[in-house]
Specification:
single chain, 5-stranded mixed beta barrel, 4-stranded antiparallel β-sheet, 13 strands
């Protein structure tokens, strides 16, 4: 190792011959300025050694060897040294910095001479969040549960009360001028129907299953005409439109088939819903004829005086058409929306459809618009309805699948002829 070679990592200043401190007489008071460590570093402060003001504390003696003895021999405990780093800066002017006092306060906890005031801050967790979450004053949840229950009960009572007061008021609809007018109310009420008939019909599901089973097994109309509603009057229509279901002999619908009774004005009927032998769905409609349960064949088969294949071609008799009707917006130059309402009618099996139109302001149009008006009680609105329509070809300029509605026969598929 070469001691004369400069080490770039060594930041200690070079030693010069002027750094000899052995000849310093510490018994005298004098001002001395140490030489700079480097020629270009004038930042070393001047030292004013005053041997009579500052006392050096004698270092503790350690029995650690010759090194400790050598250091003790060179220091006199009575020597006072006054070091003035900068003559222009007086420590007496900076009384705010008292390290000795601060250390004494920390060790002894005495703040009589130096009172350090700190702002008093309140913890957010003790006041703010406690106020937000209601921990200052706890309230039982049972009180809120009681308030909620009382409110719900009052709401139910008010709803039932309004329904009770409005039960006999006629439904009102707006005419083309925006004025409200009462809708026609059916004079036939449930009280006009014999309760024994309703009870008998409700228990007629077993008999209805047998009637529909015979109908599904029939090979010709003669096999079931006696069990249908107004058989003699409908014999010709059955012979023209009947299609066999081709069920095996002895087949009947399942005992789990749904049976539900309905009332439409003075008409009482029931529906048997189930699955055919070929897994297709069926709905059989039954009603009484002279106190004998019969199957309403027109309603069950969705009978029409013309098939939808004929209607799509602009042919056939449109005097009795059963189907599903819903509003639409298909208009032409011959049938503008300023004069007509547009509807679409689908076949009972939902396979074909035609467009039908009602002239605004006509009786048929008024009845149809009432079917799709919003109920003032429930707020509900129908999107489609089962109807029987009387149709006419109308203007020769109409498209083949466009028909005019002459009248709304019924809002159901029941045979409208009574025995």
């Amino acid at each position: 190792m070469n001691p004369d070679k400069e080490d770039p990592n060594n930041h200690a200043p070079a030693v010069t011959p002027d750094d000899d401190w052995d000849g310093l007489d510490v018994e005298q008071d004098f001002n001395a300025q140490l030489p700079p460590r480097r020629a270009d570093t004038p930042r070393i402060p001047k030292l004013d050694l005053n041997l009579s003001e500052i006392k050096l504390i004698e270092p503790a003696r350690h029995a650690s060897g010759p090194a400790s003895s050598r250091e003790d021999s060179n220091i006199k405990p009575s020597v006072s040294i006054h070091i003035n780093v900068n003559p222009e800066r007086e420590f007496s002017d900076k009384e705010d910095f008292l390290p000795a006092l601060v250390m004494e306060d920390v060790k002894q906890g005495d703040f009589s001479e130096r009172n350090i005031k700190k702002p008093i801050t309140l913890s957010r967790s003790k006041l703010g969040e406690r106020d937000d979450w209601g921990t200052l004053e706890k309230k039982g949840s049972s009180r809120w549960m009681l308030y909620t229950a009382v409110g719900v009960i009052m709401l139910i009572v008010l709803t039932v009360s309004f329904s009770y007061f409005n039960r006999d008021k006629p439904i009102r609809n707006a005419d083309d001028k925006g004025l409200n007018k009462p809708a026609p109310v059916d004079g036939n009420k449930e009280s006009d129907i014999d309760p024994s008939v309703l009870a008998q019909l409700a228990n007629g599901d077993k008999e209805a299953i047998q009637i529909y089973g015979n109908y599904a097994q029939a090979k010709s109309p003669d096999d079931f005409t006696e069990s249908i509603y107004l058989s003699k009057r409908n014999a010709q229509a059955v012979a023209r439109a009947w299609k066999p279901i081709s069920a095996e002999n002895g087949w009947v619908p399942s005992d789990t088939s749904a049976w539900k009774t309905y009332q439409n004005g003075s008409l009482v009927f029931a529906e048997l819903r189930g699955t055919n032998h070929n897994f297709s769905k069926f709905i059989g409609v039954f009603r009484y004829e002279n106190k004998e349960l019969k199957m309403d064949w027109k309603a069950t088969a969705g009978y029409g005086s013309a098939s939808f294949t004929e209607l799509k071609s602009g042919l056939g008799d449109g005097s009795e058409i059963r189907g599903w009707i819903e509003p639409t917006n298909f208009f032409t130059r011959q049938l503008p929306e300023e004069q007509y309402h547009s509807f679409i009618v689908r076949s009972p099996d939902d396979a074909d459809s035609v467009w039908v139109y009602s002239e605004i302001g006509s009786d048929a149009d008024t009845k149809l618009m009432q079917l799709f008006s919003i109920s003032p009680i429930t707020g509900e609105q129908k999107t489609e309805a089962k109807v029987i329509l009387k149709l006419d070809r109308g203007d020769p300029g109409n498209l083949p699948q466009q028909w005019m509605i002459k009248s709304l026969i019924a809002e159901n598929w029941l045979d409208q002829v009574t025995p």
